[in-house]
Amino acid sequence: MRLPARVWRLAGLLLLATAGLFAPGLLGLLGTYVWLGVFPGMAIIRLLLPRAGLMTRWTVGLALAPLVSTLIGAGLLMNGVDLQIGARIIGIAGWLLFAGGEARAVAGDAGEDLPPADRWIWSLCLASGAFVAIPPLINEWMRVHSDGLNHAGFTWEILLHGVPPMDPRFIGMQLNYVWFYNFFLAQLTSLRGQDMFSFMAIMNVVDLCLIVWVVWQLAWSIWRERRAAQGAVLLLLLGQNAGAYLLWPLQTVRAFHGDVQGWNEVKRIAGAVQLDNSNVLYVLQAPFSHMVQFYEKFLLGTPIGYAWLMMMLHFLGLARWLESRDARWLVVSALATAGMQLFHGVVGMSVVPVTLGAIVLTCLLAGRAPWLPSRGRLLAFGAAVLAGFLACLPYTQAISRGWSPEESGVRHSFFHFTTVMPWTLLTACGLAFALAGVAVRRALRERRPLAAWFAAWLLGMTVFALVVHLPEGNEHKFIWSIFAALAVLGGAAFWPALEAVRRRTGALVFTLLFAVVFLVPPALALRGFVLDPGGSSSELLGMLPGEEAMYTWLRDSTRTDVVVIDHRSRYVVNIKGPRRLLAGTPFGSERAAFPAADLARRRAISADLFGPVADVNGDLEALDSIRTRARRLHGVSDILLLYRANDYDPGDRPWDRLEHRAGDRARLRYQRDGFRIYRLMP
User: Fold this and answer.
1) Does 496 share its domain with 552?
2) Which residues 6+ apart lie within 8 Å of 272 measured at CB?
3) Quick one: pLDDT at residue 105?
4) What is the pLDDT at residue 1?
5) Which pLDDT band, with edges at 50, 70 and 90, does 106 fall under?
6) Which of 127, 348, 368, 380 has fewest C-beta within 10 Å?
7) What is the mean pLDDT of the chain?
């Protein structure tokens, strides 16, 4: 008897998940991910869309799995269920529901018209996944660098103290940042205690591969053509910043306008080019623009890649709702909207108003163009999007309270126009805009309703990006959202445009042009990330003799609610300790809404304790006040002061000054290999 394919898929997944319980290395990590990153989503989608086609079911199920796991897990934790026990319950229940749904399925029960999967889409999916998997596999620094360092600290905070999390870099303050991503990482880490940085990399690979599949399905829904769907995916993966690096000579304009001019300045600018590390991204962009690169955020430990996946999924919900009139797709859109908001507010707070605006605009135009999507269906979709957004409003408000100007000291104008954004849009998305323009004209001729709605959305998102200004220039994140929608539309014109160029130039010249414009940028980016030498100077990867033992003592011999005062705002204590810090950030209030006055005060305390130790009594009194206020939010048992001899010149021993001037109020708890830890008595 020949078993159905779904039985083999179930057996293979169960075997992989079982390996996740004991296998070491990558196999164990992948198996652990299956419990929470596959089973819960596949279980929900079997219940929600039982007759969905195979690829739709797997795309939507895998996309929703992290959201479903975190929603259920957070609910269990807030009701007294241990994080690890809750994660196990979710994984096992997800497997049982998924297996039960597959067992009840009848062969041929998929009733939806799906885009036909072929070698083309599989090849592009695997190639994109390999692109973001190779750097962290080869270069350990690319697994732990940049945003991932902060997110590892946030994840440890949830593992040790639950939710809502405090900011482990600044004791006594709730985390003013989205934390659902960290909750999912905490769930995965809790199952076996594996490396959370590896889970970040695995999630990035899964997210990008799923985005490829969603774009494939969206383009098919609009055009019903295989070539259009292929073109959309190819444009998505290769079209951002296509050829923009050829504008690099514009950098030399600075040699003719500035304090330093002439040939020596040209040579200095050319000498500053970096190709052997991740800074190659600044070469691949157009000069004087925001640094944007399609793959960059998928090579960091950050939740924005998942939020972009949710953005594309909420589009797919609209497409399928218009096609099938199945209201369950509205539930998918509502969940995807919630996912945007819960995992990365920059995506949710920009996409939701633009989506609602596009609905209103299309409804207004529907009277003159009856072939546009019906007002009733659009309004129903808008209601689903609004419901998903409003359901997350308490969470959004909770993580935004600290951003008031009175507390953070940050005063920001959110509506501001500069020339940098239009220049970035032109150079990063110019090709995609041109192709989308051709496609929109075709869609209007052929009266394709979903394409017209996408055009309205793109108009709104472009205007939004031009006028909305975020702290620290974070409006550059809007570029990816715009580009992905452009690829969905412009894919229909991509192949015809390539064929037209080939006819004019001939095969050889066309091949060279294609390589120069589309293939050189990702190849240089991949090379830079693989070769990046940042790990050689990383405090996380290159520890001093005895430093690991000191962190082991912190983990094993101190309570989880102690606070550490460390020199130079080292993040590594949050990760290797892992213990909270008094002021563990080199940044100002604009980075995470740290109260400006309190931040300055804490830095003054640290500067004295790690320097002249001139006002010990004042320092300790200030720390007592901070400790008392911190207890209102969470327990604080001890404050520990960490000295590293390597931070000082020979003969400079601030700990001697501390012992002399603080007396019994500074008790030595640890001394080894140049590391000293004092307990500061209240």
Assistant:
1) no
2) none
3) 67
4) 47
5) low
6) 368
7) 89
Contact present, 142 and 135 (Cβ < 8 Å):
yes
For residue 421, tell me if it sits in a domain. Answer: yes
Query: Could you tell me if residue 135 is inside a domain?
Result: no
**pLDDT above 70 coverage of the chain, percent:** 94
On whether the CB atoms of residues 632 and 624 are closer than 8 A, the answer is no
Question: Where is the domain boundary, 62, 85, 114?
Answer: 114
The pLDDT of residue 265 = 66
* Cβ 35 vs Cβ 191: under 8 Å: yes
Provide mean pLDDT across the span 353-358: 96
Same-domain status, 302 and 441: yes
**Structural domain tally of the chain?**
3
Give a yes or no: residue 391 inside a domain: yes
Whether residue 384 sits in one domain with residue 298 = yes
Other CB atoms within 10 A of residue 93 CB: 14
Gap between the Cα atoms of 627 and 637, Å rounded: 9
484 and 552 together in one domain: no
Q: In 10 A of CB 445, how many CB atoms?
A: 8
> Which DSSP helix (H) or strand (E) runs through 563?
strand 563-565
In a domain, 122, yes or no: no
Angle between helices 196-223 and 449-467 (to 10 degrees): 130
Task: Say if residue 428 is in the same domain as residue 329.
Answer: yes
Contact 551, 576 (CB under 8 A): yes
Q: Which residue, 611, 530, 541, is CA-closest to 576?
A: 541
Cβ count within 10 A of residue 116: 10
Query: Which residues form the domain of 102?
Result: 1-114
Which ranges constitute the DSSP H helices of 392-519? 393-398, 405-408, 420-446, 449-467, 478-505, 507-514
Question: Is 349's pLDDT higher than 50?
Answer: yes
Residues 69 and 214 in one domain: no
Phi-psi domain of 300 (left: phi exceeds 0; alpha: psi -120 through 50; beta: other): beta
Tens digit of pLDDT for each residue in 588-634?
777 777 888 888 899 999 999 999 999 999 999 988 888 888 877 77
- The secondary structure element, H or E, covering residue 642 is strand 639-644
Asked if 619 and 497 sit in the same domain, the reply is no
| Token pair for 520 | 């050189």
* Cβ contact 13:34 at 8 Å: yes
And the tokens for 444?
């209007």
